[in-house]
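User: Some background: our group keeps a shared notebook of sequences we're curious about, and every so often someone picks one and asks for a predicted structure to add to the entry. Today it's my turn. The entry only has the sequence so far, pasted here. Could you supply the structure so I can complete it?
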Amino acid sequence: MARGWGVGVDLAVPGGLSDLPQHAVEPQFLAVEEGDVALGDAQRVKISDHPESTRDFASAGRSARIRGPADHYSDRMTSITDPEVNAFLTEGTRTGVLGFTSADGRPLVTPVWFIVEDGCIVFNTGKETAKGRSLARDRRTTICADLDVPPYGFVQVQGNAELSEDPAELLRTAIAIAARYMGADRAEEFGKRNAVPGELVVRLRPTKVIAALNVTA
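Assistant: Of course. Here's the predicted structure to add to the notebook entry:
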């Protein structure tokens, strides 16, 4: 049996790859596997554009079912400096969701206000908060920002956190973050409120960025 997989894809062909029908309009290339042996790029299967949510094909008495518009939705590795990715992250008051672990290893998430600065995600947090303590133990972390209305999308930023308690940097970043989420007229007010002893500047320096900016296209 041949199997293929990809975002939004589920196909199975009992007779093997040769039984897949050839519909070669703007094909999507999907990784495939014959039994338990992964095939290389040279043997990838061509699947064309299928706007229906489910479509059946028959070939030589065998069938393949493809679920979802596989040609349109795919996440991709990218960079935080990519203009589209940067625009997505900095649009309006979009918040990020920070992933981290508790002291006993449980996975946790929490929303954060952030800005993008010099190729990094920058946010403030308390040194003694759960996320502050977690980042002190392990600097590896991930932030995900998403679009929760059509066409839906997300950017996931994985990286290593750099922590600072420098008062001037804390006040500067707190004001800049407050300007994004509270508006310029209240930026200084909220910046000073948040830039107090015990607060941290967290600069997430990306090691991997994954984006899917238009899920429903």
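Suggested note for the entry: The two ends are 31 Å apart (CA to CA). The longest strand covers residues 199-212.
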